[in-house]
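Succinate dehydrogenase, hydrophobic membrane anchor protein
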Amino acid sequence: MSVIEAPRTPTRGRRTGGINWEKWGWIYMRASGVVLIVLIFGHLFVNLVAGEGVKAIDFAFVGGKLSDPFWMIWDGLMLWLALIHGGNGMRTLVNDYATNPKVRKVLLIGIAASTAILILLGTLVITTFDPCPAGADPALLASICEGR
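Predicted structure tokens:
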């Protein structure tokens, strides 16, 4: 006769002390989700509803938005929270479904690396974007560059 273990019986040893990263990841997902809802709907409202709507979105609109420190912080916060939120969600899926430890490790490293690279590149674009580069052909520059 075989014994069936009780549901949810831990298969690994119990942790004693230290930081409970799973708990803090769970809390982060809930908190960042709420903040992301505000950031995303604010972003969509400003880009698609306010002003002339979607037909106003062009290079000059984006350039003007990214030259304002308020929108740089807004978009940067949205970028960081969304990428970390998504990376944490993918980490959870890998931990739940990848049974081979080596495959799990490779997948987790790939998720961490791609999240870090995308955060770095996105932050670089947001903080260094210049819609009016020096020496550019004036005919190719956006309308916001006139008089600069």
